[in-house]
Amino acid sequence: MEGYDPEGKETCRITHYFAPGVYAREMWMPQGCLITGKIHKTEHLNMLSQGKVSVSNQGDSITMEAPYTFVSPVGTKRAIYAHEDSTWTTIHATELTDPDEIEAEIIAETFEELDYLIARDDYEKFLIEYSLTEDDVQNATHRDNEVIELISCEVRDSAINGQGLFCNSPMIEGDYVPAMIDGKRTVAGRYVNHSGNPNAKIVLIDAKNVRMYAAKEIRIGEEITTDYRETLKVQGWEGIHKCLLS
């Protein structure tokens, strides 16, 4: 975090506390100080033990007065204004004891990086839910030797998993790319990665044609993702299961 008083001088005092498996970061802020926070990868406890502050998180604002304790969700990026001298402590579960290493563990540099981390985490949950292994999924998605190329998309290395599908042209909600044409899969049907917060969804047109529709705006260079749970529903678990065993 960075803090400034009206004259632009750094004013915050940070104190670090450690206990087995726990790290607490206490921040003292003088009246009039404005704090700009970073993007958090994990849920964590927050305690306002002194003072009164206004907190803004991605457009939502609230005023808090001590004592005030709450849990921040994944993806929190706060701006804090101290109406009076205030003390704010965040508490994190970690085995690390170096503050710089802890920050690297709990902070995402961008929301894009956070999206990739969430996608990967939910992919692990998906495997457990359906009693699948990584090899099972790879065998099912890569079973075709030849796939149809698409001008609108390209396959590149993915931060989520292996290779993924990326936009060559922007898509708005409702735009689509074919995932299967006349019974043959396209690169969209083969390489799209999973996300718990996907930007596209699979739609079955008929037995030999499947489309992947944008669920929201997808920018040029952005990876296209779907929720594999929905893919299983659309294509039918029995069909997927046969692919895994073939």
How would you characterize this protein structure?
By secondary structure, the protein is α+β, with helices and mostly antiparallel strands. The chain has 2 domains: 2-108, Jelly Rolls, CATH 2.60.120; 112-245, Beta-clip-like (Beta Complex). The protein contains 6 helices and 20 strands. The chain has helices at residues 99-106, 111-129, 134-141, 187-191, 228-235, 237-245; strands spanning 2-4, 13-19, 22-29, 34-36, 39-40, 44-50, 52-57, 60-65, 68-72, 78-82, 86-93, 107-108, 153-157, 163-167, 176-181, 184-185, 193-194, 200-206, 209-214, 223-226. The strands form 5 sheets. It has a 5-stranded antiparallel sheet with strand order 1-4-10-7-8, with no helix packed on it. Strands 2-3-11-6-9 form a 5-stranded antiparallel sheet, with no helix packed on it. Helix 3 crosses helix 6 (237-245) and helix 5 (228-235) crosses helix 6. The radius of gyration is 23 Å and the shape is elongated.
